[in-house]
Design goal:
Elements lengths: L4 E5 L4 H13 L4 E4 L7 H6 L8 E4 L2 E4 L1 H11 L10 H26 L6 H18 L13 H5 L1 H14 L10 H12 L1 H4 L5 H16 L6
Parallel strand pairs: 1-2
Antiparallel strand pairs: 1-3, 3-4
Helix pairs in contact: 1-3, 4-5, 7-8, 7-10
The protein binds glutathione.
Family: Belongs to the GST superfamily. HSP26 family.
InterPro entries: Glutathione-S-Trfase_C-like (IPR010987), Glutathione-S-Trfase_C_sf (IPR036282), Glutathione_S-Trfase (IPR040079), Glutathione_S-Trfase_N (IPR004045), GST_C (IPR004046), GST_C_Tau (IPR045074), Omega/Tau-like (IPR045073), Thioredoxin-like_sf (IPR036249)
EC number: 2.5.1.18
């Protein structure tokens, strides 16, 4: 019997995009279920009762939640075109940096994006320091694990897309070729790969979405 693979996602989620790319790189057929996060479907809440978030991958009726966990599940289930390094130390380092990306880097860039003007310089220093750490991981490499796209490229994929969207909205350049030569060249290689390029959400829609989010964060609280 053919396997049943379903992906619950939204059109814009950078976390879900990791799984779209992984399934594409592995050549796995799947069904997409687009969620409206303002009105989550009963299925999403059933499959991810703890967080109620996308992405959720459902494989033959079994749900897997959290994008980095799903990436590992995909890699271990369909072993061709491996995403994670095979060496245990390399693998643990890949997990470490992926967690750093979500826990520290993404948060610091978001803090900068929603900072009021007076707090922007301090927020920028934190974001740039974190970006510098990623830059160092890319020295002498085309992709994070060498010559082909792998787990960490997918985990950091949002940098290639969302950072430039936030930069455009803030009218501020964070990742430039002079300050971040390795990261800039990685972004170019990553964006140029057809498997990646073909899946980007529409940029104009993303700009509007993030603009609205920023305005909502920066709007003064209305008195009660
Ligand atoms: N750590 C989660 C984060 C997923 C996440 O934050 N997804 C957002 C969409 S980008 C979501 O579903 N938000 C709905 C909510 O917070 O209720 C992962 O890696 O999968």
């Amino acid at each position: 019997m053919a396997e049943e693979v379903k992906l619950f996602r939204t059109w814009s989620s950078p976390y879900a995009l990791r799984i779209v790319w992984a399934l594409k790189l592995k050549g796995i057929e799947y069904e997409t279920i687009f969620e409206d996060l303002t009105n989550k479907s009963p299925s999403l809440l059933q499959y991810n009762p703890i967080h109620g978030k996308v992405p959720v991958l459902v494989h033959d009726g079994k749900p897997v939640c959290e994008s980095l966990v799903i990436l590992e599940y995909v890699d271990e289930t369909w072993k061709h075109n491996p995403l994670l390094p095979q060496d245990p130390y390399e693998k643990s380092m890949a997990r470490f940096w992926a967690n750093f990306g979500d826990d520290k880097l993404m948060k610091s860039i978001w803090q900068l994006f929603i900072a009021h003007e007076k707090d922007q310089d301090v927020a920028a220093v934190a974001a740039l320091e974190n970006l510098k750490l990623v830059e160092e991981q890319l020295k002498g490499k085309k992709f994070f694990h060498g010559e082909t796209i792998g787990y960490l490229d997918l985990a950091f994929g949002w940098i290639a897309n969302i950072v430039s969207i936030l930069e455009e909205i803030m009218s501020l350049k964070l990742v430039d070729g002079e300050r971040f030569p390795h990261l800039s060249s990685w972004i170019q290689h990553f964006m140029d790969a057809p498997v990646i390029r073909d899946c980007w959400p529409p940029r104009d829609k993303m700009i509007i979405k993030f603009q609205v989010m920023r305005e909502n964060y920066l709007a003064p609280a209305t008195p009660k």
